[in-house]
Design a protein that fits this description.
Radius of gyration: 28 Å
Largest sheet: 2 strands, antiparallel
Number of strands: 2
Oligomer: single chain
Structural class: mainly alpha
Strand content: under 5%
Helix content: over 70%
Order of helices and strands: HHEHEHHHHHHHHHHHH
Distance between the termini: 64 Å
């Protein structure tokens, strides 16, 4: 028996020594021990705060439930009816179209404006630093604060719009109360709020362009436009792709700034985005199952866009 115990103990010792040797070989610079120490807590937090809520939303989307009592007590299984109602609801169609408008305005106006300003003030200098600060200030403001500021500006009685109409002897105009103007007024705020953020991304990219390359092009007789379109823009394409990605994802998730500007989606729900639609019909009206179904659709949209963009566009950054 003693010989058997000795053999087992020797086997355990050899296994432990093999594990220690493996850890020593693979723990270059303490990387493996760092991973073993920090990944499990991060993975647990990510699972509790991201994975489980997404899974629960997927489950709730198949129920009619108010969220005040247990799902087993007041929840009623409705299958795909929540999704069917959403896809047939004209207000949701308007919310999707409004979200698409934010994407289009961002890509066609906001990002080109940010690029033009970045090209103008990318060079180092005290005056350019001041301009960057001024242009970046709107992004520093919290979205809710920016929304409240512009709600006052658009006020037809006391705001800047009221001063403009009184100056020219026009009737009082309330953009946020007009069905045709409400969301267009929000689009103006979107461009004002976020162009500075994309401008800083472009400036960071432009400052990494080698000056020697630009000077060589000038010596060869290249014009300013040729330098921009043939040297600078191709070299900062990774920054441009990243900016477009943030712009589209931000448009899909647009919510905080819209809430102070318009209540309940504006006049006749004409100013709803997908997220404000979710909040109004899912949270405010205590239809948690319905809101979860909207959240699932939004998650699918974001996931599909992110996967396609990362796979076919962002992958070029490393090509």
């Amino acid at each position: 028996m003693k010989s058997v115990d000795i053999a087992l103990e020797a086997q355990r010792t050899s296994r432990l020594s093999a594990v220690k040797d493996w850890l020593y070989r693979h723990n270059t610079g303490g990387r493996l021990s760092t991973l073993l120490l920090f990944i499990p807590p991060a993975l647990m937090v990510f699972t509790l705060l991201v994975i489980l809520p997404i899974a629960e939303s997927g489950v709730y989307s198949f129920y009619r439930w108010n969220g005040f009592t247990a799902l087993s007590d007041s929840g009623r299984w409705v299958g795909w009816r929540n999704f069917q109602f959403i896809l047939q609801d004209p207000v949701f169609h308007q919310a999707v179209w409004n979200t698409a408008k934010i994407v289009l305005i961002s890509l066609l106006i906001q990002l080109p404006l940010a690029m033009m300003l970045a090209l103008s003030i990318a060079s180092k200098g005290s005056l350019n630093t001041l301009f960057r600060l001024v242009y970046f200030l709107p992004f520093i403001l919290a979205d809710v604060v920016a929304g409240l500021i512009w709600r006052f500006i658009y006020d037809g009685n006391f705001g800047l719009v009221a001063a403009f109409t009184q100056l020219f002897g026009m009737e009082s105009f309330y953009p946020l109360a007009d069905r045709d103007w409400a969301f267009n007024a929000i689009l103006v705020v979107v461009v004002w709020k976020y162009f500075g953020y994309h401008m800083m991304i472009y400036i960071a990219g432009l400052q990494s362009v080698p000056n020697d390359l630009v000077e060589a092009a000038r010596l060869d007789g290249a014009s300013r436009l040729q330098i921009i379109f043939r040297i600078k823009l191709p070299l900062i394409m990774p920054a441009i792709r990243l900016s477009i990605f943030f712009s589209v994802i931000g448009a899909l998730q647009f919510f905080e700034m819209a809430m102070p500007l318009v209540t309940s989606g504006g006049p006749s729900g004409s100013a709803h985005t997908i997220v404000t639609y979710l909040y109004e019909f899912g949270i405010v009206r205590s239809r948690i199952g319905f809101g979860s179904a909207v959240a699932v659709l939004l998650f699918v949209m974001c996931a599909i866009f992110a996967f396609i963009y990362q796979r076919f566009v962002m992958a070029r950054n490393t090509a």
